[in-house]
Input
Amino acid sequence: MEFGQLRYFLKIAELGTFTRAGEELGMTQPALSRAVAKLEEELGQPVFERRARRIELTDAGRILQTRAEQILALVDDTLAELGDSETTGAVRVGAIPTIAPYLLPIVLRDFRDRLPGVHVVAYEETTDKLLHRCNQGEVDVAVMAAPIVGRYLEAETLFEEELFAVLPTGHPLAARKTISLADLRQQPFVLLDDTHCLSETILSFCRQRAFQPVAIQHTCQLATVEELVSLGHGVSLIPRMARNADTSDRRVYRPISAPTPTRTVVMIWNPYRFQSKRMKRLQECLRRAAKTNGAKR
Output
């Protein structure tokens, strides 16, 4: 049994099809099928059940999946520890889409200035995908919003971030310096789709105050939310980082009177994986960015 076979097996198990796994691995489907067939021959039993559109793990496959993850994690960590360098190599960081455009450029600039010889791989993905990548060791550190639902991960709070009401410039509420939640009860909302945790943060805050926003638009980009607000499609709540980065004169941002809606921004990592010097320096950069940018009003 070879390490390569185990990596192929895990990728197929993750994606559910040989075709998609082959695309990600850069292999043809016949070559991938041969590798799995050889693995099953060595084990003496199948690891996949072939369905019409998707494959599923057999009982043996589920056992192998757990063991393969442990074996490869140990191998990867051993290689990383033996080759641990603070000035060369790579580090991988991820962030959710409502944080990545605003925080990662600052962090990566700081990291590059301090460790110019280290290659940085950045991922911008939803919470669920980043949690999976952290668990699998595919990402060293990820930045997202609490709460975190995931096992075997450690989280550190970076900062609390205020959410602001965003309105088109001609909106009747735009003349006010502060807006109450009651002012927004009858307003149509533009929200991100359900894959983004910011929408759940907004909905949860409103539900706790007996207020269920009526969402007339859903989108997958925060910038699109802001543009739809500018066009008069509704109002929304936007994180402070996005407000600070906005230069448009077609919309205005107003604080919400107490209780103020906020979200907690955290960085997470897998404490059971090897913690390289590069990763620790990246964490330091995130803490510095949190102190300076997380405190901005």
Notes: The domain at 3-82 is CATH 1.10.10.10 (Arc Repressor Mutant, subunit A).
